[in-house]
Specification:
InterPro entries: GH, Peptidoglycan-bd-like, PGBD-like_sf, PGBDSf, Rv2525c-like_Glyco_Hydro-like. The chain is α/β, with parallel strands linked by helices. The chain is built from 24 helices and 15 strands.
Length: 690
């Protein structure tokens, strides 16, 4: 706890509680937005803002006072303004030595220290509205250096220099050593100001591009060269100093940056180079050699793509816009390569989690294997929204961690790529979860693009949407290709459908899979759902109870007692458990049982190798889910079982599988429980059909 922050909070509560719309804040001595907003609200009350809201906007800026050592602290209003200033200084980490309401030499010294940290020339200790606004926020003006973030001293120099030269337009940006959107926009503002624009806005546009200088060795436009040097360093290319001279260091950095971005590497910095430094698309009129689309590629569309100079086509592995084997043949026959993209629900934050990553990894591997994509094919998993940095931490990284985990556990021959904004790509790669980035740079306003460099492992840079004309017109996303991933030029399809339909539960139940990732619903009503699904074989996640069934018997020493109890219960109804189970002596199953009070789910998993393809095995699951009111167990289980019996009669399905499932559930939940008793009554009814 900071004692002076605590005193600031106490003063605010004592002075403003009861004055609309101020509300009491915690007196915890911790600087945070709650305290900062309280200080802003107090200032707005003092200067007469009609509806104080704790946000330092244009109206507050217009009415904000200028304070100095000459301010008259005998005026109660000015005295309160000085208190607010001193509280803001304490919250920002500067020490005016007291919360006094008097602007003395110590307060002046604290203000001068802040002005120096912000990069201002000739600090004078005068608190202008610009200084007040910079104090009343949560950004840092000292180098960040902690376990999570470490600022770069050279970027701090850049930030201070931008504040020094352009504060009349940009205000004061953070000087924390972290390249961010505020630094990025300040660089654009600086460029626009040097271009002579009358209304600079910090947004890259055609006017800014058209007025860009052309800089090369010997150029004398010092201010432009400084901005170029700043931008190069922020993008990871060190010009070896910020001196405003275009020497060999600047030329080398420009050349290397141009080569990295796929520009003509001539060491001459013009509009196109500035664009690539300052906006995520770079020059979005550039024509790429890769594209992606949601449209099925027909022969005429393939001809159009090829005639327009494209060599690589991105298509979806699964979902509504999924590629087909026939389409892939068309693409390859036209001399084009393919990059596989996986996206189902990747356009919203709620979609991403560790568990979803496991599901998507399985689905992607299954689809890619069926199509016959070769070893080392990179699959690009999509994060198609503006994920904030904390979203990456909480949701995106766990999602990709799960994908990597499953790929590793299954010995996947495929590699994990990512389609996402820059920051998401960078953080996922830094965590070791992806090997190649497909950057959605078209969204220039994304918080994950603005203020972040192009990822070092970028393979494709999506910069514009265009319509191609030719044998058949098609709208595509235009992508610059780095050459790090040239896509796939041929496949060796595996007919997983035939394998599934001829070796699985589906055949026993007289149904067929329409696609490997499809779920077949066998029965679905208010009380019970029975379905079959397929997957690449994965290890158990350990979250559910699991028992094994092999050679007509349940296996495991820890199940012996509940198994004996089940046998005894069934014997009372003259049902011989062993004789029924023996009918399935050719099956080897892994059985999971889970219950949450409102439902009981039983999953019978069967796995088998794919002939001639021993790099993976397939897993199929028969799932039986009871939706049972715990207060009506016997009644509703009886109705559910009657529905299952009708289903078995109508479809001639193998009743022994249902019997095995119910028996396993009883072993797990216990024959002596209410749920176990209801299940025993149900299994007795099923026995005649097993």
């Amino acid at each position: 706890m900071d004692e002076m922050v605590n005193k600031t909070q106490n003063w605010l509560n004592h002075t403003y509680v009861g004055i609309y719309p101020y509300t009491h804040i915690p007196e915890d001595g911790i600087t945070g937005w709650t305290t900062i907003k309280a200080l802003i609200t107090a200032l707005q009350i003092e200067i007469g803002i009609p509806e104080p809201n704790g946000n330092f906007g244009p109206a507050t800026m217009e009415k904000c006072p200028t304070l100095s050592i000459n301010s008259d602290a005998t005026d109660p209003k000015i005295q309160h303004e000085i208190y607010i200033l001193q509280g803001a200084l304490f919250c920002k980490g500067y020490n005016p030595t007291g919360l006094t309401g008097t602007f003395g030499e110590n307060t002046k010294a604290a203000v001068m220290k802040f002005q120096a940290d912000a990069g201002l020339s000739n600090p004078d200790g005068i608190v202008t509205p610009m200084i007040f606004k910079a104090l009343l926020n949560m950004v840092a003006f000292v180098l960040i250096n902690n376990d999570n973030l470490k600022g770069d001293p050279n970027i701090r120099i850049i930030q201070q220099s931008l504040n020094r030269d352009y504060n009349r337009v940009i205000g004061l940006i953070p000087c924390d050593g972290l390249y961010s959107r505020s630094t990025n926009k300040a660089l654009i503002y600086g460029l626009q100001i040097e271009e002579g624009q009358t209304s600079p806005d910090g947004i890259w546009g055609s006017n800014t591009a058209s007025k860009c200088p052309v800089l090369s060795v010997g150029s004398t436009q010092k201010k432009f060269i400084l901005l170029l040097q700043y931008a190069l360093y922020c993008n990871g290319f060190n010009p070896n100093g910020f001196d405003g001279y275009y020497g060999n260091g600047a030329k080398s950095a420009v050349t290397n940056f141009q080569s990295f971005c796929g520009l003509k590497a001539d060491g001459i910095a013009g509009s196109q180079t500035f664009a690539s430094l300052l906006v995520s698309t770079g020059d979005n009129t550039r024509k790429g050699t890769a594209c992606d689309c949601s449209t099925t590629v027909t022969p005429s569309i393939a001809a159009t793509i090829k005639s327009n100079g494209y060599k690589i086509v991105g298509r979806y592995l699964t979902g509504k816009f999924r590629m087909t084997s026939d389409e892939l043949k068309v693409i390859f026959d036209n001399g084009l390569n393919v990059i596989p993209i996986f996206e189902v629900g990747g356009y919203k934050l709620e979609y991403f989690s560790y568990d979803q990553g496991l599901l998507d990894a399985n689905s992607a591997m299954l689809a890619a294997t069926q199509f016959g994509f070769p070893e080392n094919t990179i699959i690009y998993f999509a994060v198609d929204f503006d994920a904030l940095d904390y979203d990456v931490t909480s949701s995106i990284l766990p999602y990709f961690s799960a994908i990597n985990e499953l790929f590793a556990n299954l010995g996947s021959k495929f590699k994990v790529g990512i389609y996402a904004p820059r920051n998401v790509c960078i953080r996922t790669r830094n965590a070791g979860y992806s090997c190649s980035s497909f950057v959605c740079d078209m969204s220039t306003g994304f918080s994950g693009n603005l203020g972040y460099p192009l990822p070092k492992d970028w393979a494709f840079d999506q910069i514009s949407t265009v319509t191609l004309h030719g044998a058949a017109d098609i709208e595509i996303d235009n992508n610059i290709a780095s050459g790090r991933d040239n896509g796939i030029s041929s496949i060796s399809p595996i007919n997983i459908l035939d394998i599934l339909n001829n070796n699985s539960f589906a055949k026993r139940f007289g149904v067929e899979f329409s696609s490997p990732e499809a779920e077949i619903e066998l029965l679905n009503n208010a009380l019970v759902k029975i379905s079959i699904s397929a997957a690449i074989k994965a290890a158990s996640d350990g979250d559910s109870s699991v028992i094994k069934f092999k050679g007509g018997e349940f296996e495991g020493t820890d199940i012996q007692t509940p198994l004996d109890n089940l046998k005894a219960s069934l014997n009372k109804d003259n049902i011989e458990l062993s004789s029924i189970l023996a009918k399935a002596n050719d099956m080897e199953l892994s059985i999971k049982v889970s219950t949450n009070g409102a439902s009981l789910k039983i999953e019978l998993e069967n796995s088998f190798k794919v002939p001639e393809y021993d790099i993976f095995s397939l897993s199929e699951t028969l799932s039986i889910e009871f939706r049972i009111d715990k207060d009506k167990l016997l009644e509703e289980f009886e109705l559910a079982v009657n529905g299952i019996i009708d289903f078995v009669k109508e479809t001639h399905a193998i009743g022994v599988l249902i019997f095995i499932a119910l028996a396993a559930a009883i072993i797990i939940v216990g024959a002596e429980t209410a749920l176990g008793a209801a299940l025993i009554k149900g299994i007795a009814s099923i026995a005649a059909f097993a």
